[in-house]
Amino acid sequence: MRDLVFLPGFMLNASLWDDMRGDLATLGTLHFGDLGQDSSLDAMAERVLANAPDKFLLFGFSMGGFVAQAIALKAPQRVLGLGLLNTSSRPQSAQESTSTLAQIALAEKAPFKGLTSRALASSLHPDRAADTVLLQRLQAMALQNGKEVFLRQLSTLRDGSYADLHRIACPALIVTSDADRLRTVEESEEMAQRIPAAHLEIVRNCGHMTPMEKPQELFAVIRDWIAASKL
What we know:
Rossmann fold
């Protein structure tokens, strides 16, 4: 039976995969990495590797996709297949760094009350930006993570790994969404061009939160890719 490791995005946790968990379990044994204890991509990658099976398929969503790339480059002999979901390999821009520092300064002084309504809404398809059920689920994960995780994950700087993506030799599935307002289709296309054995899928009528907005469609993409790649 194959092992599958899943990594969540910023201020998310294993609950991100709840709508897919039953279907995913038909593909193998599920493992969920913890990205809340460290403040660098390298340390996050080392923690996941320390707790992961000897060999596994790896799926990283959003921020987890950056960690997944680091893991695939660190331990290529252990990662049999790589899924990069609604993520990127671009380094952090100067504007993003400035915004992050401002958020950290503000968060350090105030009680943590979760993510802002604007931040939550921007992660969903515009037509679902007022979906109270999805918004509440997202906020619940943020609150469960809390202030310390918020500060640690905000402090995680992305230096980008474009120069090394050609070294990823295992089959790679890259998934993007046409209405993702946080990560663009172009960013996924760039990764697909650099990873030799990459397959790109675009999920239609979907925002950033593909595992929650289109769980059945995303599962089908993952299932079919595993079968086609003979993993």
